[in-house]
Write a structure and sequence with these properties.
Number of helices: 10
Radius of gyration: 18 Å
Distance between the termini: 62 Å
Helix content: 25-40%
Structural class: alpha/beta
Number of strands: 12
Length: 275
């Protein structure tokens, strides 16, 4: 007589390693050390949430590093990351969870937070779609940074499709937690404008984000839906926003005739200083 054992939930493999960032652990760790070495670890605030860009590291890595670097001071206290990013390849209604038990990168596997996922699973705007996650880079490219600046943490990954900002804010409210929970919104800014036009457009978008002044549209930020949800939730919780870095691909590694904008932002309470 044979006994079957329950199937172990699958690990989502890295989909864009070797494309958006190095595919080998040693090369990836080296690149991250270089990127993060240029980021100050002495920012005054203790961020509850951040916005970071999600292009290839050669383009947006320095901007992402600027907001991840200060998190090294909190590496022992942040135990859960709620990560939201827009869908680029598969359309989905609502906010999509995967059915997997972890996400892999060349640096290892980040386990999903089953208890936190259970807390939001019954919300009508939350769905399960492995297809939405399978090739999605907006979430994946954040993970090596998080693995580099934090100790062990669990993950709640949400690929955001067609949804209202209020629906995103409701999910964030359920998962808000305390100092152990960090919210990460993955978003680039303007796309394929000439350099000078992009700088002007992105400066206005940054002003709106810092003022907690939604709604942004998808021409201003490809992750506008999760960004707008965060801005609503941040207002309700009395957070203040700080612009950490604002550049575009023309400043890093791209042609200046058609650039993509990148912004890094941190959100914290006024009293949330790191001592």
């Amino acid at each position: 007589m044979t006994h079957s054992t329950p199937a172990t939930p699958a690990i989502r493999p890295a989909a864009v390693a070797g494309a958006f960032y190095p595919g080998s652990a040693s090369a990836l760790a080296r690149d991250l050390r270089v990127l993060l070495a240029g980021a100050s670890a002495a920012k005054a605030w203790r961020p509850k949430a951040i916005i970071a860009p999600h292009a290839g590291y050669v383009y947006s890595g320095p901007i992402a590093a600027s907001v991840y670097g200060p998190l090294r001071a909190l590496r022992a206290s942040i135990r859960r990351v709620v990560l939201l990013g827009p869908t680029h390849r598969v359309a989905v209604n609502g906010l999509a969870l995967p059915s997997t038990s972890g996400f892999a990168t060349p640096l290892g596997v980040v386990p999903l937070d089953a208890a936190a996922i259970a807390d939001i699973a019954a919300l009508p705007q939350v769905v399960v779609s492995d297809a939405a996650h399978a090739m999605e880079h907006s979430l994946e490219v954040q993970l090596p940074f998080l693995q580099s600046v934090l100790d062990d943490f669990t993950l709640v990954p949400l690929a955001v499709g067609r949804a209202l900002a209020a629906q995103v804010a409701e999910v964030l409210e359920r998962l808000w937690g305390g100092d152990e929970t960090l919210i990460v919104i993955s978003s680039d800014l303007s796309h394929y404008l000439p350099y000078a036009v992009a700088r002007e457009a992105d400066a206005e978008t940054a002003r709106r984000i810092v003022a907690l002044d939604p709604p942004l549209d998808h021409q201003q930020a490809c992750g506008a839906t999760p960004v707008n949800g965060l801005l609503l939730a941040a207002s309700r919780h009395g957070l203040q926003a700080q612009l950490i870095d604002l550049r575009n691909s023309g400043d890093t590694a791209g042609d200046r005739s058609r650039v993509v904008g990148y912004g890094a932002f941190a959100f914290a309470t006024a009293s949330a200083n790191v001592h």
